[in-house]
Specification:
SH3 type barrels; mainly beta; 25 strands; five-stranded antiparallel beta sheet; six-stranded mixed beta sheet; rod-shaped; single chain; Type Iii Antifreeze Protein Isoform Hplc 12; eubacterium ventriosum atcc fold
Length: about 325
């Protein structure tokens, strides 16, 4: 068939053109010109999205609302065949026989989209940590990453993070975030980063030796990033002052809980009263400690009368107690 030859089909003419086709009716009351490229916002493609429609208002609204298929994923493009568009339109009962439609052979339809920025996600992550961190501590976020971030449809963006209140807001953290567009869930991403937490902890102001008892002149509070320090670092004065060091501590070194111990109230070789008692009877005898100990500790004690070595619980600096 040569271009320009007219073929009558159902009271309409199909005109082959250099770029597609045209279907024209006598005394056309409806004119449709389909674009070669178009974009849509939603997940459906309607004729009004890809064509200029002229005619009476009631018929143009009906024709414009005809769905031609699903759109692609946000940011992607789908091709529609011009002949397929004509077939869909002519299948409608309200399709007028005197309509004129001009279309290219192929229509490229792109789904409009947006990318949620990394800064937006970082702010979301920051607020999540800020709402849950202990004691409203000072903190910062480093090495922040977003995994799974893809284009999403246009629209109002809201978000929700899957709550995991058991997670400690310290060091490496990862959470799952859901992105909603116009209240419809569109995307799931993984947010991760390092939470740097700054806190004042006790550090030695001079070299401290093993068995020294810590005083306020031996230590000072220094602001540190505790995310990179052991969990048992000490920031409470009650846990430091009056405690004895288990080993050597360098000047400037932070103190940990496992470096400290209570000062013994009895030392090895002390003479103490050994008490054994029941509801009806109390017996005491002098003994000699073979170990040092704090209140509540079980230590070895030698009975000065029987010369037997027994285990006794430290009560205070002069008394130990055995089970009767």
């Amino acid at each position: 068939m040569k271009k320009g030859i007219k073929i009558v089909v159902a009271a309409a003419f199909i005109l082959l053109t250099s770029y597609g086709f045209s279907v024209a009716g006598e005394d056309s009351a409806l004119s449709i010109v389909v674009k070669s490229k178009a974009s849509v916002r939603g997940d459906k493609i309607y004729l009004k999205d890809i064509a200029q429609i002229k005619g009476e208002r009631n018929i143009t609204q009906k024709i414009g609302s005809v769905c031609l298929g699903s759109s692609s994923r946000p940011g992607n493009t789908r091709s529609l065949k011009g002949e397929r568009i004509l077939t869909i339109l002519r299948s409608k009962r309200f399709w007028p026989v005197n309509a004129t439609i001009t279309s290219p052979e192929t229509v490229e339809v792109t789904r409009r989209s947006r990318i949620v920025s990394k800064e937006w996600y970082k702010d979301l992550f920051y607020r999540y940590v800020a709402d849950r961190i202990e004691d409203n501590a000072d903190f910062s976020i480093s090495n922040f990453k977003v995994t799974g971030n893809r284009p999403v449809p246009e629209g109002a963006v809201t978000q929700k993070i899957a709550d995991n209140s058991n997670k400690k807001m310290l060091g490496y953290m990862s959470v799952t975030a859901f992105v909603y567009i116009d209240n419809k869930r569109e995307q799931r991403v993984m947010l991760s980063g390092w939470v740097n937490v700054y806190k004042k902890v006790f550090c030695a102001v001079r070299t401290l030796k093993r068995n020294e008892v810590v005083t306020e002149n031996d230590v000072k509070l220094v602001r540190k990033d505790i995310s990179k320090l052991p969990l048992n670092i000490v920031s409470d004065a009650k846990a430091v002052m009056g405690q004895r060091l288990k080993h050597y501590v360098r000047s400037g070194e932070y103190l940990r809980g496992d470096m400290l111990e209570d000062v013994p109230v009895v030392n090895k070789g002390d003479h103490v009263v050994i008490v054994a008692e029941s509801v009806a009877l109390r017996v005491t005898v002098i003994g000699k400690t073979l170990e040092e100990g704090c209140p509540g500790d079980m230590i070895k004690v030698k009975n000065s009368v029987s010369k037997k070595i027994i285990s006794a619980r430290v009560i205070d600096a002069s008394t130990v107690k055995v089970q009767f």
